[in-house]
Amino acid sequence: MQAQLAALQAEAAKLAAENARLKLAQRSKLSMKIGDKGALSVYGMGRWPVTLYRSQWETLLAADNVQLILDYIEANADRLAVKGE
Prior knowledge:
This protein has one domain. It has three helices and three strands. It has helices at residues 2-27, 54-61, 63-75; strands at 31-34, 40-43, 50-52. It has a three-stranded antiparallel sheet. It is elongated, with a radius of gyration of 20 Å.
C-alpha cells in the first residue's frame, strides 16, 4: 500500500512538472493572423490577442518608440506587474 502511494505521488509530481513545462513552452510561442478588416493580431502574449493596424504597428515598432517604451519600462519596473507573479 505504501509503495503504491509513493508511486502515485511520484507520478503526480512528474505530471505536474510536465504540465508546467508545456505551459511555459506554449507561452513563449507567438503567432500572427490578419483579420477580415486588415488588422494584424498577435497571439500568445495573454488571453486575448494584441490587434493593431499596420500604421499602428509601424509607429509602435519604430526604433525610437521601442527605445522609449523600454526606457519607460525600466524606469517604472518597481510599479509594473509581471504576468505570472
